[in-house]
Amino acid sequence: MRKCIDWRLLPMLGTLALLFFQGLESVHAESAAALFARGDIPAYKVALDAWLDSTERAVSDTDAAARWQKLSAMPGYLHTLAQAELLRVTGLENIAKLAATQDGRAFLSTFMADPAWLELYLVSGPVPENTPDGLATLRDIWLADRAPDTMKYRHLATAVALVFNTDPQKKRLHDVTTRDRNPLTPLARYQFFKASHKAGKLKPLFDKLATWELRWVVSAPVENEALAWLQDHVNVPLAEYDGICWIPRYRGVNDFGNTVQGPLFYPARSQLNWAEDTAAHGGVCGALSTFGAYNAMAHGVPATTKGQPGHCAHAIRIAPGHWVPCFGGPDGGAAYHFGPDTFAYVWQADDAFGDFAAMRRSTQLAWRARRTQARGDFTAALAAQPLNHPLWQEYIGRCQADPTCGKDDWKKIADELLRSMAKHPRPLCDLLAMFDEKNLWPMLSMEEKTAFFLKLHEMIATHQRPGWTPWEMPRDVLAKQLKSLGDADQSGPFFGQVLAAYVRHGHEFFIGKLIDWGTEKLAKSRAGREQFFAAITAALGEAGGAADDKIRRKVFESAIRATEEARSVAGFQMLSAAAQKFAAPEGKLKLESPRGRLVSSEGLLYLSGFDGYDPPLQHRGVLTEDGGLFHGQPAKDDKDGHAWVVVQLRDECVLSGLALGNRLSNQQRCKSLRISTSTDEKTWKPLAEIGDFKQQHKLDVSDKAVRARWVKIENTTPQSDAFHLRNICIYGKEVKD
Predict the structure, then answer these.
(1) Is 554 in contact with 596 (CB distance < 8 Å)?
(2) If you write DSSP's letter for every residue of 597-648 in order, what string do you get?
(3) Distance (Å, whole) CA 449 – CA 444
(4) Whole-structure pTM value
(5) Cα 125 from chain centre
(6) Of all helices (H) and strands (E), which one includes residue 498?
(7) Domain 586-734 = CATH 2.60.120.260
(8) Domain boundary assignment for the chain
(9) pLDDT digits over 156-204, tens only?
């Protein structure tokens, strides 16, 4: 009987003589093919390099652009360069391990001889390094399904191979088990999406997705049965995908009283797939956002969940660069990303790979730069696509290892980063942090550093993203800048200039972050507090008409609360006076006041806790007979559950009396109050209790010789859900001794 030839060897037998070497002389190609055929991968790598070296020597142009133009046009050069890069990134031993089997050699002969497929693997985001796993995944798919010969399914197969074998999803995906408790395999994920595509279960945009975009489709760490259930049971137009997360009920306790934080919340987990289980039993934000993201992915739409402080949101990509925020956002810590765990790197990758021709050219130039080790070749690669973040990291590391890299070189790198990555300030600042303190700043004069710092903040403020961001910019950027400037007397003025940039551009989030940071770091001493709060006033003045009233009000609200937290009476008074025009009147009330001088008007107040209704701009009015408003709630760690307000006087006083005015509405919330005093803000002495507080209350203590600098008022009204007063007027005279 005639023995059949194994079909898997046909590609190797048919193409091995020309393997990877369309541009080589035939004798060299035959020699290299023989080396590969017998598995001598190190010698095979030498043959590749020898051909590349001889080809590059044949081009004599000194101009880098002209030289590259000629090289890239030479038959076989880019293809051979890609093969050499594959050997480098995978590792010679790992390639040899894969080529040691008949199936492995058959796959490699097809894969490495195909420049388009090589490119998909090497230029579509993070690649598995120093491991054969990514190629082994492609081998398994290729052996099981010849359909990767079509470009659409090559995109799909390559995306699966990349996602299943690179962080951050690698471990999560390999931890997934199917309904029968078998591991989820990359082959099964590929076959699921291929079958779904053929059955018409994916949205039309799936057909337009490149390999790097498909990574946000195939990366759901959940069993395929759950994705299939979503395909069959959740079918709405793409425009309605942001509401899919509300199909499950939002609930923290199930029908049996089990909390979502415990193991018994999903009692039927063994009978239902994840999506069906979540739809049946509900959950909190994490379950709902994951349901919404997985539904998009099940239908071929890129998506990812996003971690936020105390919350989980998600985002769905309905068009290039257009991520729709769902259940909060749009920023957060992306579950799947090409860099650090923040959505800033998702946006950055979208822009970088969106111009795929530029990213491909940049990556190809980088392959050559690694061979030549020439600084100019790296800069050419970065010029081709300045958003190539991993290549910037590599280049900066090489410059740090090069003792000839001096001030002009580092300044050029910093200036190029500011120019090319201005729209992505978080990735930009992460790159600057690799070298600025160590390599650049010591070479700059004080004037040069200050100008550079302010330019950076202007750029960050200009290119803001909407919504919340997890970046603690003041801690990561401003703190080390102030340390480098070194002059404590200049901290306040420099802080004011920085804050002014964010005020001018209306960056509400970073305005709050800057003020919070300044409260904690600058306002610790009396001198620091004076500088800090003066800087806030100066920043508003410097911003001028560029800051609208909404932003000014936002700055004043944050700043006044900062003065209260810092217990800065001078800052509270100064900023409250500057914000007077934004303080809406609470309503007229003729207050019955005891004898003595009004001393509270020169102090400040602070609250046990804030809610969304508190108006800091009206706090100072509370301390006067004209009236104002605060709107507080109990502190989170308060065992009694009482909301309170403390008035801090400018100086210690002998009190003669108090006059309290209730809000003109909702007076039932404040029916009973407890008043106590302190001279050290630690030990409190009871002064009075009010059991039936209505519109106002006058308390005369002129005969009790009460000394105090702090007066505390607690709302002891049963079941009160808020605490708000119109007036807390304290009368007396300063202690002279």
Answers:
(1) no
(2) EE-GGGSEEEES-B-TT--GGGHHHHTSTT-----B---TT-SS--EEEEEE
(3) 6
(4) 0.83
(5) 18
(6) helix 491-504
(7) yes
(8) 1-113, 403-581, 586-734
(9) 999 999 999 999 999 999 999 877 778 999 999 999 999 999 999 999 9
